[in-house]
Amino acid sequence: MLRIYCPYCQEVRSEEEFSYAGEAHIRRPEDPGALSDTEWGEYLHFRTNARGPHREMWVHAAGCRRYFNVLRDTVSYEILEVYPMGTPPPDDTSGDRA
Prior knowledge:
Blueprint: E1 3-6, E2 11-14, E3 19-23, H1 37-45, E4 53-59, E5 67-73, E6 79-84
Antiparallel strand pairs: 1-2, 3-4, 4-5, 5-6
């Protein structure tokens, strides 16, 4: 089980209090109407699914209910960094999409 630090509550809590919310730092297309169906489908459904360091969004569902970002190693499950929404992402990940 993961122990996750909430940057807003400033507490380390059990993974059971949190929900995974997808890959972090996905940029919305500037002109969605100009995208083909294939391009729109890729934006909506395709993610990097990186092996190793990966940026993720989590929400403290049973706590403050706020979203934040996590840099987590998908091989070891080790949480490398936790940072609030709006904070620039750490630059030590592979498969950078933002």
